[in-house]
Automatic annotation (TrEMBL):
Species this protein is from: Methanosphaera cuniculi
Domain SAICAR synthetase/ADE2 N-terminal, chain residue ranges per copy: 9-232
Top-level division of the source organism's lineage: Archaea
The gene coding this protein: purC
Biological process according to GO: 'de novo' IMP biosynthetic process; cobalamin biosynthetic process
GO molecular function, one term: phosphoribosylaminoimidazolesuccinocarboxamide synthase activity
Pathway of action: Purine metabolism; IMP biosynthesis via de novo pathway; 5-amino-1-(5-phospho-D-ribosyl)imidazole-4-carboxamide from 5-amino-1-(5-phospho-D-ribosyl)imidazole-4-carboxylate: step 1/2
EC category name: ligase
Protein name per UniProt: Phosphoribosylaminoimidazole-succinocarboxamide synthase
Keyword Nucleus on entry: no
Keyword Ligase: yes
E.C. code: 6.3.2.6
Catalytic activity: 5-amino-1-(5-phospho-D-ribosyl)imidazole-4-carboxylate + L-aspartate + ATP = (2S)-2-[5-amino-1-(5-phospho-beta-D-ribosyl)imidazole-4-carboxamido]succinate + ADP + phosphate + 2 H(+)
Length: 247
């Protein structure tokens, strides 16, 4: 336990969010719990939380450098991030560059079809309703976001896609698809929150198309954490690896 942690605000499937002494900031603890298939598949994997926190922090820093507002303040421990406290928008914003997973089950895309422009999808982040897909009209009618805010969310998500796709491709990985969540900061800005990690992306080796993400767990295969460790090693620079004892 670190002393900045105060009361637990909420506990989700993979992270705990704590209040801190500063009302504008929260502490996000990345746990080792992993779930898939709408909570139907669960496990606890040593170091998974730390790897996701390290990867997310790196991505947030890169995005900040490109002018995208993110929640990231600092990593105070390998699995504990100090972040801006956000009033979360209950949307899972999904961006896809290649057709795979549920897209193939639901629509007549070809396997691994390149999606250009990328396909954007909004799901309602709501466990009771099992995260149904929304459209603009439903989002506006439910007062989840306004038309202008949705347009801004689309623009930011496409920029995240471009920045991270390029960064990862230079390191031998294809960003196949990802999910992001946004929230409002105290000034009403739309800010990227939550995490971007192998739990929330599909990352493929650019040559073999081997997975380095949660699909390994979804398929019931071994080596999930080893794959996440490969991603940590690919994205962190030497200084960052030394700081967090990654070899
Ligand atoms: N910066 C933030 N401020 C407040 N809440 C956040 C922030 N970033 C993420 N959250 C919320 O923290 C919760 C915990 O994360 P997670 O374990 O992934 O939960 P879930 O099971 O709901 O996806 C999520 O509901 C997420 O929306
Ligand atoms: Mg989550």
């Amino acid at each position: 336990m670190t002393d900045v942690k105060k009361e637990l605000l909420y506990t989700g499937k993979a992270k705990n969010v704590y209040k801190t002494e500063n009302d504008d900031e929260v502490l996000i603890e990345f746990r080792d719990d992993i779930t898939a298939l709408d909570g139907g598949k669960k496990d606890t994997l040593n170091k998974k939380g730390a790897y996701n926190a390290l990867i997310s922090s790196k991505f947030f820093k890169i995005l900040e450098d490109e002018g995208i507002l993110t929640q990231f303040i600092k990593l105070i421990n390998e699995n504990e991030m100090i972040a801006k406290s956000l009033d979360m928008i209950p949307l899972e914003v999904i961006c896809r560059n290649i057709a795979t997973g549920s897209l193939l089950r639901k629509y007549p895309f070809h396997k691994n079809q390149h999606l250009q422009p990328p396909v954007l999808q909004f799901d309602y982040k709501n466990d009771v309703y099992h995260d149904p897909m929304l459209n603009d009209s439903i989002i506006i009618a439910l007062e989840i976001a306004t038309e202008e805010q949705l347009q801004q969310i689309r623009q930011i998500t496409l920029k995240i896609n471009k920045v991270l796709s390029e960064f990862l491709y230079e390191r031998g990985l294809i960003l196949v698809d990802f999910k992001v969540e946004f929230g409002f900061d105290k000034d009403g800005n739309i800010v990227l929150g939550d995490e971007i990690s192998p739990d929330t992306t599909r990352l493929w080796d650019s040559e073999t198309h081997k997975n380095f993400d949660k699909d390994i767990f979804r398929k019931g295969e071994e080596g999930v954490v080893d794959a996440y460790e490969v991603v940590v090693n690919l994205v962190l620079n030497d200084e960052e690896k030394q700081k967090w004892n990654i070899d």
